[in-house]
C-alpha cells in the first residue's frame, strides 16, 4: 500500500508547472550557472549539474535522450536542456519559483525552455518514475505547456503524462490508484479538472493528474493519437466533432470502463 501511494504522491506533487512566464522564456540557457558546474553536451541535449554524484550526469543524459525520442515519436522535435542543481533551494531559484516552499514535494519542473531537477524529490523516485517525470516536464517544454492559458490545464498536464507513461507498461489502476479507488466506490468526477485542481496542496491533486491523463488516453484510443496532438491548440468541436458535454460524458464512461 505505502509503495504505490508514496510514489504517486511524489509524482503528483512534482508534476506542476512553475516559472514558465515571459521572464523564463527570455532567459538564456546557462552554460554554467554555478562555478565548477559540470556540463555534458550530447548531440541533441545538454545536461548541467552542480556537484552531482558520479554517474548521475550520464544517467540524466540517458533519460533526457529517451524522453527526447519518445516525444519526437508522438509530438515532434525538442532539444532537452536539463539542470541538476545541488540543492532544492538552488532549483527553486533556477526555476524562478517564489521560494523553496513553492516547489515542495516536486522532483522536477519545467520552465519555458528547460527542465530543472529538484534533487531530493528526484532521489525518492523509482527508475521508471524518473523517466516519466523527465519526459513529462520535457513535454511541457516541447509544447509550450498551456501557452499562456490558451490550452486547458487538463490537456497540458494530461498530454505530458500521456507521453510520459507511453510505453512504460505500467498498469492503469496502479498509476491512477487514487482515482480508481473513488470510481470503484461509485464516485465519478463530474467534469474535467480545472486549473485550481492542479494547484499545489489541492485536496485531489493526484486524482486531477489521473483524470487528465485518462482524458488524453480516451481521446487517443477513440480518435487516434494524431487527433490528440491536433486537439492541443485546437478545440474538441473542430478536431473531434464533440461538444464539451459529449467529450466529458465519453471520458466519464471511459473512466468507469478502465478503472472500475
Ligand atoms: Zn506538468
UniProtKB/TrEMBL annotation:
- Keyword field: Signal
Q: Which residues form the signal peptide?
A: 1-25
Q: Which InterPro entries match?
A: TAT_signal
Give the protein name, as stated in the record: Uncharacterized protein
Give the species this sequence originates from: Planomonospora alba
Amino acid at each position: 500500500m505505502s509503495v504505490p501511494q508514496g510514489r504517486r504522491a511524489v509524482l503528483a506533487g512534482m508534476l506542476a508547472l512553475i516559472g514558465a512566464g515571459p521572464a523564463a522564456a527570455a532567459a538564456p540557457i546557462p552554460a554554467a550557472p554555478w562555478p565548477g558546474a559540470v556540463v555534458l553536451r550530447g548531440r541533441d541535449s545538454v545536461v548541467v549539474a552542480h556537484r552531482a554524484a558520479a554517474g548521475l550526469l550520464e544517467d540524466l543524459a540517458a533519460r533526457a535522450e529517451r524522453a527526447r525520442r519518445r516525444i519526437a515519436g508522438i509530438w515532434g522535435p525538442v532539444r532537452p536542456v536539463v539542470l541538476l542543481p545541488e540543492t532544492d533551494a538552488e532549483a527553486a531559484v533556477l526555476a524562478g519559483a517564489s521560494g523553496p516552499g513553492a516547489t515542495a514535494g516536486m522532483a522536477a519542473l519545467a520552465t519555458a525552455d528547460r527542465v530543472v531537477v529538484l534533487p531530493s524529490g528526484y532521489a525518492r523516485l523509482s527508475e521508471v518514475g524518473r523517466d516519466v517525470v523527465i519526459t513529462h516536464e520535457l513535454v511541457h517544454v516541447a509544447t509550450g505547456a498551456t501557452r499562456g492559458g490558451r490550452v486547458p490545464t487538463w490537456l497540458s498536464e494530461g498530454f505530458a503524462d500521456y507521453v510520459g507513461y507511453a510505453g512504460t507498461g505500467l498498469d492503469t489502476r496502479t498509476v491512477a490508484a487514487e482515482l480508481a479507488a473513488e470510481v470503484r466506490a461509485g464516485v465519478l468526477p463530474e467534469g474535467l479538472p480545472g486549473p485550481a485542481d492542479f494547484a499545489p496542496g489541492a485536496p485531489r491533486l493526484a486524482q486531477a493528474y489521473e483524470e487528465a491523463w485518462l482524458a488524453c488516453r480516451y481521446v487517443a484510443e477513440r480518435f487516434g493519437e494524431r487527433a490528440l496532438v491536433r486537439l492541443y491548440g485546437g478545440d474538441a468541436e473542430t478536431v473531434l466533432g464533440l461538444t464539451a458535454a459529449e467529450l466529458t460524458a465519453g471520458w466519464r464512461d471511459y473512466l468507469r470502463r478502465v478503472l472500475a
